[in-house]
Amino acid sequence: MNSTWLNSPMAEERGRRPGNPQTRDSILEAAIESFVTRGYGGTTIRAVARAAGVDPALVMHFFGSKDKLFEAAIHGTMPVALVIEAIGGDEEHLGERLVRRYLWLWEHPVHGPKLAAVLHAATATPAAAELLKELMSRELLGPIAGTLSHDHAEARALLAASQLLGLALMRYLLKVDPLASMPADLVAAAVAPGIQRYLTGTLSLAEIAAAPR
């Protein structure tokens, strides 16, 4: 066999991984790693392809654009199902269950860094923020609101989520003390009552029904 051909670009392209589901998973894993370590702005299609051992055209074939790749990475990064698991049960203790599960995910050695990467990207890039907003509204806030028996369930779920996002920003991204160094159990005990109030307490939300959309 001609050794020159073995070193040619055509041989390299033919040696790349074919477009199968395993290849898509490899691309997604490389993308998640890049978004976690380099952020949204520092991630490129070409770099992701290189890390996955495929041609950039194959990344585009599977995902279409960097935004779609980031959306898929969010789905692969955000442990939505683990949050939804905490919804089941009585409404009286829903706030505590959500806060404790939320803190557990952020403290987790695998989930935590990925959540930080997604939140950091959302605060730095409008496109990433829009993707995260759509995902949260569809797959997290909707299910939470659907479990509430009180009025203005969507607004209640959103108010609770705003507090949880603020908690993550101050504790895990900005690392503001003493919040950043407080034991997770102590944080949960302090935050859960406020979240519970948003979900099931008495709130002045009557004007929401008449507000323009």
Automatic annotation (TrEMBL):
Residues 1-23 are annotated as: Disordered. InterPro entries: Homeodomain-like_sf (IPR009057), HTH-type_TetR-like_transc_reg (IPR050109), HTH_TetR (IPR001647), Tet_transcr_reg_TetR-rel_C_sf (IPR036271), TetR_C_16 (IPR041678). It comes from Nonomuraea zeae. The keyword DNA-binding applies. Residues 44-63 bind DNA. The keyword Transmembrane does not apply. GO terms for molecular function: DNA-binding transcription factor activity; transcription cis-regulatory region binding. Keywords: DNA-binding. This is TetR/AcrR family transcriptional regulator. Residues 21-81 form the HTH tetR-type domain.
